[in-house]
Write a structure and sequence with these properties.
Length: about 400
């Protein structure tokens, strides 16, 4: 595998990335033909236009802008040009992932989640459990979360993370992105992607997100009749690495992913119960089992997805249908005429909702709200509906979502 070209609005960042890898000669290009000629000459190409890269003769396009509108357009362009796509921009995936996956299938290429990011790793655990004959009760990730973080803004986000000013400046950290990690938006986005890839649904609006040590997870993530929190089985959720008072959980899974499983087979239960507490934790005398991966390495592990797509035309996780939606709830009382700024910002936080409930309630997918103008007042913690807001119906993301909703074969 070779990173042949990088597209970035700030071309200097692309050049720095190549220089850091010591790859040799680099040339800036402005069109697909020039990009291909540069590669043919043994050089690496950089461009400030992602469409140029998407239309060039590369094998796999990794979409990592983090901007849903742009990410959806890049992915669509690459797929229509018969390129495999590894989608790192999960925010776009939650809105239009199923239609992009279907279009990719129609033209014979792969649309894939990015291995190393939590959704793909959770989907892998889910597939493993299904393959060995275990039923998945719940699946999720770890995250530092307390309820009051929902209302946090970019103004003080780095203080809440404990980052000093020098570290923030040296690493060019985006306060909106880091705030989305804390206000529940990123949690909702990633677990929505998992739901759409596996068919697991949120148990309740916004999930439970209990604080728990590693060995407590199978106790929390089991049905209520057996002492747990769940109203249903087969759900997505998240485990917080923070107690409600903000103190840290000692043996947490903040950086990892997990599944809780069960089986009706008494022999298997007894067998798994024997290993309880020795790296694998159980509840109810082995009826529920926790399997987990203590880390995820986004970026570093993405090459697994690239190889899987290029060599096997096989995704490392793919959204199949909308069983969940990420919707936007007000961080404060909002007034008609205000412009919304999306997850991680000042106006709304993202939360996961069952797709049928979201459709029935006329909720708007969170990523379509950014830049939209409110036409009515919205009280704090109220989910924004289509009646509350004037959307940009000319945006590519909106039009692609409308295409998906009109495609009854999805």
């Amino acid at each position: 595998m070779q990173t042949a070209a990088i597209a970035d609005l700030e071309v200097d960042k692309a050049v720095d990335a190549f220089n850091g890898a010591d790859v040799g000669d680099i040339k800036q290009v402005d069109d697909p033909d020039a990009l291909e000629a540069t590669i043919a000459d043994g050089m690496r190409a950089v461009t400030d236009d992602g469409i140029v890269l998407a239309e060039s003769d590369v094998d796999v396009v990794v979409e990592a802008t983090g901007i849903p509108e742009v990410g959806a357009r890049h992915a669509y362009t690459a797929i229509m040009d018969k390129k495999h796509v590894v989608m790192v921009t999960v925010e776009a995936d939650t809105v239009v992932g199923p239609i992009l996956a279907k279009l990719a299938d129609r033209v014979g290429v792969t649309y894939s989640m990015a291995y190393g990011d939590q959704p793909a790793l959770i989907a892998e655990l889910y597939d493993w459990a299904q393959t060995v004959g275990l039923d998945v009760v719940a699946a999720g990730k770890g995250n530092p979360f307390i309820n009051e973080y929902k209302y946090g803004t970019p103004d003080d986000v780095f203080e809440r993370w404990g980052f000093d000013k020098k570290f923030v400046e040296e690493n060019h950290l985006n306060p909106y992105m880091y705030n989305s990690f804390l206000d529940g938006t990123k949690v909702a986005v990633e677990m929505c992607a998992v739901a759409n890839a596996t068919g697991l649904k949120p148990d309740v609006s916004g999930m439970h997100i209990p604080a728990a040590e590693l060995e407590e997870i199978p106790k929390r993530m089991r049905p209520q009749e057996d002492g747990g929190l769940l109203e249903n089985s087969g759900v997505v959720d998240t485990i917080s690495s923070l107690n409600p008072d903000g103190s840290e959980i000692k043996n947490d899974i903040e950086f990892g992913v997990w599944i809780v499983t069960t089986t009706p087979n008494e022999g298997v239960r007894e067998y798994l119960n024997q290993y309880g507490g020795s790296g694998m934790y159980v509840a109810n005398a082995g009826k529920y089992q926790l399997f987990y991966r203590p880390f995820h390495l986004p970026g570093t592990e993405t090459s697994v997805s690239v190889a899987s797509a290029a060599l096997r035309n096989e995704p490392t996780g793919v959204p199949k249908q909308h069983v969940a939606e990420v919707v936007g709830a007000a961080k404060r009382d909002l007034s008609a005429g205000e412009e919304l700024d999306g997850g991680g910002g000042y106006t709304v936080y993202g939360m996961i909702e069952d797709a049928e409930t979201a459709t029935r309630s006329n909720y708007v997918p969170l990523e379509l709200l950014e830049g939209a103008t409110l036409v009515s007042d919205v009280e704090k913690d109220t989910i924004v509906t289509a009646d509350d807001v004037q959307l940009d119906q000319e945006s590519f993301l909106y039009r692609l979502r409308m295409l998906e909703e009109s495609d009854k074969t999805l």
